[in-house]
């Protein structure tokens, strides 16, 4: 499918906010516009034949996130019995179709993925994974991930978001990211995770040392929100990770692709890459239980 599938895109609006979704393409939030300006960006030239690979929107990372590997091979994991299975980087959710249900008032959407023969080959568990988006008001977006173990065995998982925030690359030097108290870590080429080093309270986004870095939150939940301040766009984006009833978010990852990429990713994660092996954020969900991770994104006008 190379044509733009407008007929398959769901659009939700509230006041000056517009959300666009492709549930069939990994439950993907494509874009969020506030007052006609992109906050979460989707490229005009998106390759719809491989939507999971498009640099934009918010890919859902489940059941594992990041790179996991066995004997140097990325995309493999070993269970407690020593069985090695194939599971793609960032998991399979972003490649699969979700069922979708729009809220009655039209201000929210819930998307659901359940296990299938295809998922059980690399992840032999019964589950229901849900992603809910809701516009609390015209400038505030609530996002919830929920995992339910519908099988008889404990289920390992660590999910996350991959928000692509719109930011012209020429504005990185004047754009700052405020973070709660954190320890900075990264993944080595062999898959191991670096030892923690003290994180800073603020970074400029032209700082190449934070590309592909994990800001491990200590303590959780964080006392202050994540705040992306972009004077060139006249706005600040706040990510509140201390929401009622939410699991503790483990880390916030910062990443962009290239020096001329007009986006910057700020990604709340429930664990670190390879947690299935290193245990850093790995969660075990008991049979019949549900766990929920919630955050709130707010957009405010600077000086307004």
What does this structure look like?
There is one protein chain. By secondary structure, this protein is mainly β. The protein has a single domain, classed as Beta-galactosidase, Chain A, domain 5. It contains two helices and 25 strands. The strands form six sheets. It has a nine-stranded antiparallel beta sheet with strand order 9-10-11-12-25-21-20-15-18, with no helix packed on it. The mean pLDDT is 95.
Itemize the secondary structure elements and their pairings.
Layout (H helix, E strand, L loop, with lengths): L9 E5 L2 E6 L5 E7 L2 E4 L28 E2 L2 E2 L1 E3 L5 E3 L12 E4 L5 E7 L2 H6 L4 E11 L2 E10 L5 E3 L5 E4 L9 E3 L3 E4 L11 E2 L3 E3 L8 E5 L8 E5 L4 E6 L10 E5 L7 E7 L5 H4 L4 E3 L4 E12 L3
Antiparallel strand pairs: 1-2, 2-3, 3-4, 5-6, 7-8, 9-10, 10-11, 11-12, 12-25, 13-24, 14-23, 15-18, 15-20, 16-17, 16-19, 19-22, 20-21, 21-25, 22-23
Sum this structure up briefly.
The protein is mostly beta strands and 304 residues long. It is 3% helix and 41% strand. The protein has a single domain, classed as Beta-galactosidase, Chain A, domain 5.
Instruction: Describe the global form.
Output: globular
- What percentage of amino acids are in beta strands? 35-45%
What is the number of helices?
A: 2
Q: Nearest-angstrom radius of gyration?
A: 18 Å
What is the domain tally?
1
Elements, N to C (H/E):
EEEEEEEEEEHEEEEEEEEEEEEEHEE
Task: Identify the CATH architecture.
Answer: Distorted Sandwich
- The CATH topology corresponds to Beta-galactosidase, Chain A, domain 5
Secondary structure class reads: mainly beta
């Amino acid at each position: 499918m190379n044509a733009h599938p407008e007929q398959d895109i769901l659009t939700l609006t509230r006041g000056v906010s517009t959300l666009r979704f492709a549930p069939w393409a990994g439950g993907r939030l494509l874009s969020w516009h506030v007052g006609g300006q992109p906050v979460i960006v989707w490229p005009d030239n998106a390759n719809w034949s491989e939507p999971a690979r498009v640099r934009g929107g918010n890919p859902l990372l489940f059941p594992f996130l990041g790179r996991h590997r066995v004997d140097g091979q990325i995309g493999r994991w070993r269970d407690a019995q020593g069985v090695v299975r194939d599971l793609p980087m960032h998991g399979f959710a972003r490649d699969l179709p979700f069922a979708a249900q729009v809220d009655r008032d039209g201000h929210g959407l819930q998307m659901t993925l359940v296990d299938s023969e295809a998922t059980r080959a690399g992840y032999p568990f019964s589950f229901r994974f849900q992603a809910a988006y809701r516009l609390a008001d015209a400038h505030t977006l609530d996002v919830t991930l929920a995992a339910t173990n519908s099988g008889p065995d404990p289920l390992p998982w660590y999910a996350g978001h991959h928000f692509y925030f719109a930011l012209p690359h020429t504005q990185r030097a004047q754009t700052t990211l405020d973070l709660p108290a954190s320890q900075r870590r990264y993944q080595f080429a062999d898959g191991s995770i670096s030892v923690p080093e003290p994180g800073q309270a603020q970074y400029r986004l032209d700082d190449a040392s934070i590309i592909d870095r994990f800001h491990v939150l200590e303590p959780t939940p964080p006392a202050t929100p994540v705040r992306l301040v972009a004077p060139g766009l006249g706005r600040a984006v706040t990510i509140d990770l201390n929401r009622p009833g939410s699991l503790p978010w483990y880390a916030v990852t910062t990443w962009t692709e290239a020096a001329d990429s007009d986006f910057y990713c700020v990604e709340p994660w429930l664990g670190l890459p390879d947690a299935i092996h290193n245990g850093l954020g790995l969660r075990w969900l008991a049979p019949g239980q549900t766990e929920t991770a919630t955050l709130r994104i707010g957009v405010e006008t600077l000086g307004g």
